Structure formats: structure tokens, C-alpha cells
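Researcher: Here's the sequence for the chain we discussed earlier.
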Amino acid sequence: MQIVETLNKELLIGNREKNKSCSLDPEIYREMALSYSRVENSVAVLSDMQANKSYVYFSETAAELGINSDENPKLIDSIWEEDILKRIDPDDKLKKYVHELRFFKMLEAIDFKDRAKFSVLSKLKMRDRNGCYRFVQHRMFYFYSPDNLKLRFALCLYNIALDHSQHQSSEFLIINSAKGEVVAEDRLTYENVLSAREMEILKYIGEGLTSKEIAEILSISINTVSRHRQNILEKLKVKNSVKAFSDSYRK
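Model: Thanks. This is the structure I predict for it:
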């Protein structure tokens, strides 16, 4: 998925600069993740951007979601917790990635001392142990090194949401915890502008698929895909379809 490659470039490569060490103690952040998993019954994932690995802490919530492991914590050689991510609704997972990239870009653009005020708060659909989708609350916090000002740790917390009404929709928010304010909200806002087929094609564009690949998935001709892409550009008044996809996640 193209968005994952972009996130890897942004989150990982920037932390591999030589002669710029990070004095943050990993043990302190591992203890923090463990505490969240015990006190809040969260599935807590601490990702180390410098080492490209993650620690996953399990709780009763993990059992409800069908995420099991003989190890606790479980060490994985990646910043992506695939056992959890594969259970997220595909559309919500794509939105989650885009939202996280937006969060990273926002923090990189503000003063270092203000970054700790902000976090991600999302509600997304995830399959439980019975294979049924349930709403899960996802929170994410970034921790930057005071030495090189680079992102060092990301802490993701997953809890089963209280409200599971089918009338509810997924939410992707960036909040200022210090002020208790929503500073950004990501929703697809083009449903009233684009047809269902155009929305479908726009989603595949966001995943990095070519026109040929989209045509094969939807069992339509490449010419039809090209026509839809052109219609999307005209309706949304943007210069290219990648920008159209990015814009569709802005408030």
C-alpha cells in the first residue's frame, strides 16, 4: 500500500541520522505501555522508530478482539502491529494511515515544545474474536527526542468503544489534550459530489493502484477507469487524482 511506504519514509528514515543520538530511555516508555494495558485494559503498542520494532502488551481486550499471544509483551521487528491492523475494516485502515500521516506532518510543522499537547483519537471498526465488526477506540501519542527533535516512540492504545450503534460512523480526530479541543477532523466529504463508483475508484487511487489494476478489480475497462478519473478531477476541481484523494480527508 503506497501510504504505508510513505509513512515508513517519514517515520523511520528521519530517525537514522548518524551522530544524533536520542537520550530517551526505552524502558520508561515500555513501563508506560504496560501500565496502560493493565489500568485501562488496553491493547498497548509501543513502536520504536529508531530501532524499527514494537512491543505489544495484551489485556482482556485483546482476548475479546481475538488477538492472542503466548508472549506478553510480544516483540515484533516492525513499527506495524499486523496482527491488529489486519482486523481493522479495510476502509478504516486506509483512513487511519492517512490520518496518522497528517498528524505527523502537523507536529513537524509546530514548535517542538508544543508537540506533547496533541494526540490522535479515533473510532474505527475492528473484527472481534467472533469475526463481527465492533467499534474500537484508538488513541495515539508521539514522543520526540529532545536531542535530535526526531520522532522516537509512538504509543497506540486500543479499547472496545462503549457505543456500537450501527448508525454511528468512524471518526478520525486530532485533539489538543491540554485544552480539550478538536483541532482537526478527517471524514470523506465527497459522497454528495461523486458517484458510488467514483468514490470506489478514488479509494483505490489512494491505495496506490494503477488504472489497469483498478480495472481488473472492478471488471471494467481501462478506458472506463480513465473516464471516471477525469470526472473526479473535473468535479473536485483539482489538478490530479492523488491530490483529490488527499483532499478528501481534509476537514
